[in-house]
Specification:
The chain contains six helices and 17 strands. By secondary structure, it is α+β, with helices and mostly antiparallel strands. The strands form six sheets. Strands 1, 2, 4 and 5 form a four-stranded antiparallel sheet that branches. Strands 3-14-13 form a three-stranded antiparallel sheet, with no helix packed on it.
């Protein structure tokens, strides 16, 4: 199955379906964006995601997604605050100045998936710690360095190599290797895996025109090691309790190079300084 899936190449009609799904998902992130402020409960953000998605006739891919040790995922978005690396479950937690919060959205539009995330610095500039800003900047730059490293037919490992080189040279932060980017399309998660560190499998596998995948580096201020919450079965935290940041795009490899499908109107663009 993995072998077959790893060869999925979309034709022009299918590429248009993916562009359309990702366009909606990016618009959704722009809808949520103004509400990601001090005082908002993360479950209030999730409610906006849920209602906007349903009112447009689409499906939140996260809701009831199978796989957690304690049952399927219970909400329509993932919101991962501070030491939470990924799969944070929206709750009555209120965002406060100085927090960093990753909002990860995935929508199914006409059977096709768009998946992306952004980390937000909560509050005024002078309320954000240096390390919060640096880990966020690092994750953001790693996403674009990973994308820029790809080309039609490239080895998947060029992504992890570009990320690890950058982080080692400029930061010394931990690059999470347990959770990876992924092929995406008619399924939320499919082959191939897209690791953010170089790996032997990623060295063998290639990105061919027509393949859709995500890049979603998770960067930790301290150790790369993580712990999954035993009670909820989803929330993944840094082992040392230090901050973690992430950014994600869905990307189509074309005959001419990578095409980012999840560009927002109002979010940070390549080169942005936090
Ligand atoms: N959006 C996440 C990703 O980037 C996956 C979330 S799965 C969920 O792959 F079940 F936690 F929602
Ligand atoms: Co993803
Ligand atoms: Co995601």
């Amino acid at each position: 199955m993995t072998r077959r899936q790893s060869k999925i190449r979309l034709n022009e009609e299918e590429r248009e379906m993916m562009r359309n799904a990702c366009r909606f998902n990016a618009e959704l992130l722009d809808v949520v964006r103004p509400f990601v402020k001090p005082g908002v409960k993360t479950e209030e953000l999730d409610r906006i995601v849920h209602e906007y998605t349903l009112s447009h006739g689409h499906v939140p891919a996260c809701l009831h997604y199978p796989g957690g040790d304690a049952g399927p995922y219970p909400k329509s978005s993932c919101i991962s605050v501070n030491e939470v690396i990924c799969h944070g479950i929206p709750s009555d937690y209120e965002l406060k100045p100085g927090d960093i919060a990753n909002v990860d959205l995935t929508t199914i539009v006409d059977g096709w998936h768009g998946d992306q995330s952004e980390t937000f610095l909560i509050g005024e500039d002078n309320q954000i710690s240096d390390v919060a800003r640096r880990v966020t900047q690092c994750a953001f730059d790693c996403l674009y360095l990973g994308i820029e490293a790809t080309s039609p037919g490239c080895r998947i490992s060029v992504i992890g190599q570009a990320i690890v080189d950058h982080v080692k040279q400029h930061y010394g932060f931990g690059v999470v290797d347990k959770y990876v980017g992924h092929g995406i399309g008619a399924q939320f998660h499919q082959a191939p895996n897209i690791p953010h560190v170089p790996s032997p499998v990623a060295h063998r596998e290639r990105l061919h025109p027509g393949m859709c995948f995500t890049i979603e580096p998770m960067i930790n201020a301290g150790t790369a090691h993580s712990v999954c919450d035993r009670r909820d079965g989803w929330t993944v935290r840094t082992q040392d309790g230090r901050l973690s940041a992430q950014f994600e795009h869905t990307i189509l490899m074309t005959e001419n190079g990578p095409e980012i499908l999840t560009t927002t109107k109002n979010g940070p663009k390549q080169g942005f300084k936090f």
